[in-house]
Design a protein that fits this description.
alpha/beta, Nucleotidyltransferase, domain 5, about 20% strand, 15 helices, eight-stranded mixed beta sheet, binds adenosine-5'-diphosphate, five-stranded mixed beta sheet, 13 strands, about 40% helix
Length: about 400
């Protein structure tokens, strides 16, 4: 008898899902419903040997989730309803430092965090509410992107602004990508045999990018802050800028706060610097063909990442391992080589052959005499399924 868990990531105009059979931890299906709320809404469902796309005539959260569950049932993948549904929830504020079974009270607390994640939390909640209406008997679990970083000490999470902004509005650094950082650091520690005693920096490099310092399985510092805009240069997000930039742009360009925020979130990062694309593969290819701005974007991305890793390292008792993950971290030998070249001060050195192969059997890409550098493929959806199973 299979033990199915459905993992859902509901966004403002999309729902991503994965179905796991937890008796084997195998992913039985995955898919994406996108352009929800428009006339072009579509659902794609991938199984081991098939990929089907269907148009969605009604694409509110409830109808879409019903179609997803029907599609999985018709494909013979859901003999019975899932034993749990795990939701990725972006912001848990200070209320959640672990995954939780969703109750009315949990939903209220997720709602309280909407000011901290005004785009993501309402969409996450809409997915939870739709499932509650459709299948009230299925237990639901919330797994938060911020929870893993709740172990940061005040000196790591406070900004140098009036303390009253923290007490009144909870203005502080939260950090994100927690599910991924937790998993890849634990996996690297397991592979290297340093489970109980380690200082690790993990770099999650996808469309969004963040790095975290992890000591004995606990996050002690991370690059993202109040929002996922802080820290590293990303696909379309700027990462750190001088806070004075807002006033400068308002005065020089007449931009209001919405415009500045949109530019920093959607038109900056690799896209803004290169003038070409947010996609690292496109940038690498263009730089290889002599596109000067693409090269510049690569240089900035790697310089700033190395600089942040250097900063995070001050929170470690020892630097045992640097871990690369996410679409870029798992696949880009060029980015890994450029970043590591900027980290010579820590003694890091790459084995270029291992780097070209994305690592040895342990994922290691470091030269034998330097500290460990490891590539670990992240498994965020499976982690959400495992956390959900543990709670139901
Ligand atoms: P998301 O954050 O949306 O989950 P991913 O983790 O899938 O994104 O990462 C997407 C990024 O990974 C894109 O910038 C993509 O170009 C990059 N990427 C994927 N494969 C490669 C590769 N072989 N070389 C360089 N970059 C890659």
């Amino acid at each position: 008898m299979s033990q199915n868990i459905l993992v859902i990531n509901s966004g403002s105009s999309s729902i991503k899902f994965s179905l796991f059979d937890m008796t084997t931890e195998a992913e039985r299906a995955s898919g994406l419903a996108e352009r929800l709320g428009s006339d072009e809404a579509v659902l794609t469902v991938k199984t081991a040997n098939q990929k089907n796309t269907v148009e969605l005539t009604e694409s509110d959260y409830r109808s879409t989730l019903q179609v997803i569950i029907s599609a999985l049932t018709e494909a013979g993948l859901l003999e019975t309803l899932p034993i749990a549904i795990g939701h990725r929830v972006v912001h848990g504020g200070e209320a959640f430092s672990d995954p939780v079974v969703i109750t009315r009270d949990v939903m209220d607390k997720i709602r309280d965090c909407i000011p901290l994640a005004p785009l993501h939390n309402p969409a996450n909640l809409a997915g939870i509410e739709a499932i509650e209406e459709l299948y009230p008997a299925i237990p639901q679990v919330a797994v938060f992107d911020t929870a893993f970083h709740q172990t940061l000490a005040p000196e790591a999470y406070l900004y140098g602004v009036p303390y009253s902004l923290y007490t009144e509005l909870k203005v502080r650094r939260y950090g994100f990508h927690g599910v991924s950082h937790k998993y890849v650091a634990a996996e690297a520690a397991r592979r290297l045999g340093i489970n109980d005693n380690h200082g690790i920096i993990s770099a999650h490099l996808g469309n969004g990018c963040s790095a975290a310092a992890i000591v004995n399985g606990k996050s002690v510092d991370t690059t993202m802050g109040l929002t996922p805009l802080e820290g590293l240069v990303m696909g379309t997000r700027s990462g750190d800028v001088d806070p004075g930039l807002h006033q400068f742009l308002s005065q020089q360009k007449g931009w209001d706060i919405e415009k500045v925020t949109a530019v920093l979130n959607k038109e900056s990062g690799m896209l803004g610097l290169s003038g070409l694309s947010n996609d690292m593969r496109t940038i690498e290819q263009a730089a290889g063909e002599g596109h000067a701005q693409a090269q510049l974007a690569l240089d900035v991305f790697c310089f700033r990442l190395a600089r942040q890793i250097g900063g995070l390292a001050t929170s470690l008792p020892r630097f045992d391992a640097l871990v690369f993950t996410g679409g870029i971290g798992e696949n880009s030998r060029l980015i890994r080589a450029k970043v590591v070249a900027n980290l010579k001060i820590f003694g890091f050195e790459l084995d270029s052959e291992l780097n070209a192969n994305n690592g040895d059997e342990l994922g290691r890409i470091s030269a034998a005499n330097g500290p460990n550098i490891v590539v670990v493929n992240t498994k965020e959806e499976l982690m959400i399924a495992k956390e959900s199973l543990a709670l139901v």
